[in-house]
Write a structure and sequence with these properties.
By secondary structure, the chain is an alpha/beta fold. It has two domains: 195 residues, 2-enoyl-CoA Hydratase, Chain A, domain 1, CATH 3.90.226; 52 residues. Helices cover 40% and strands 16% of the residues. The strands form two sheets. Strands 1-2-3-5-7-10 form a six-stranded mixed sheet, sandwiched between helices. The longest helix has 16 residues. The radius of gyration is 19 Å and the shape is globular.
Length: 260
């Protein structure tokens, strides 16, 4: 499976390229390997941001490999620690994942984007969920889309398999940046460098709290904050980095984050 994943280390940025011709579709075995890669990213203190993209110029990811489905691979089978695509269900991954969408994101290849932290997309990228037209229903898409966009728009996407452009998803607040077709990775790297300006402990705290509070009311969020239920948030508040930013601003210099 390593031959279907190209891994590059760009300083603190991990770059993962999905390269499984013809359409970068993912089966359970490849998904488990992607989970291993994202677990290594999670556990490596020298790595701060991951970028996932697809090889070629046409497909980011065509989703679940239908050939594997036809051969008996189960819809709710073992896709690895982080779920389909390696990261969407890895809730202890407290580092940002940027998806650089270079082409078509279809089915589960679209759905896994919904759990990315940031998305940049080629102006030629297209996104759609064809599951209902092939006899199943989207899972992540059904869980997430009606919560993050107008319900009727989400239902149109889910029920009809309507294709959306990168610009349309940017208008809906799902894609962060749309760029020229050949500039997806450079745009993603620029976004990663902006993230790297933030304190790593702050980034981890933000990801921890986002996950922990998805179903909580405002009052419940503050109750959990005051009860110190978020260990990474507490660690961030008690760190030297929590004062370094203010000191650096006062001294007119860039902060030096120690992660402690």
């Amino acid at each position: 499976m390593e031959k279907f994943l190209h891994i590059e280390y760009n300083g603190p940025i991990l770059e993962i390229t999905l390269d499984r011709p013809k359409a970068n579709a993912i089966n359970a075995e490849l998904s488990r390997k992607m989970g291993e890669v994202f677990a290594e990213f999670r556990d490596n203190d020298d790595l701060k941001v991951a970028i996932l993209t697809g090889a070629g110029s046409k497909f980011f990811c065509a989703g679940w490999d239908l050939n594997s489905v036809a051969e008996g691979e189960e819809y709710t089978g073992d896709f690895g620690e982080g779920g389909f695509g390696g990261f969407p269900e890895m809730h202890n991954l407290l580092k940002p994942v940027i998806c650089a969408v270079n082409g078509y994101a279809i089915g589960a290849g679209f759905e896994m984007l919904l759990n990315a932290d940031l998305i940049v997309a080629s102006e030629q990228a297209q996104f759609w969920l064809p599951e209902a037209q092939v006899g199943v229903a989207p899972d992540i898409g059904t869980f997430v889309l009606p919560k993050i966009m107008p319900r009727q728009k989400a239902m149109e996407i889910l029920l009809t398999g309507k294709r959306l452009s990168a610009a349309e998803l940017q208008d809906l607040g799902i894609v962060n940046e749309v760029c020229a077709h050949g500039e997806v990775m450079e745009t993603a790297r620029a976004l990663a460098r902006r993230v790297l300006l933030s304190a790593p402990l702050s980034v981890a705290a933000i990801k921890e709290v986002r996950h922990a509070t998805q179903t909580l009311s405002f009052e419940e969020c503050y109750a959990d904050l005051r009860a110190h239920k978020w260990p990474h948030f507490k660690k961030m508040l008690e760190s030297s980095d929590a004062t370094e930013g203010a000191i650096a601003f006062q001294e007119g210099r860039e902060p030096v984050w120690k992660g402690a």
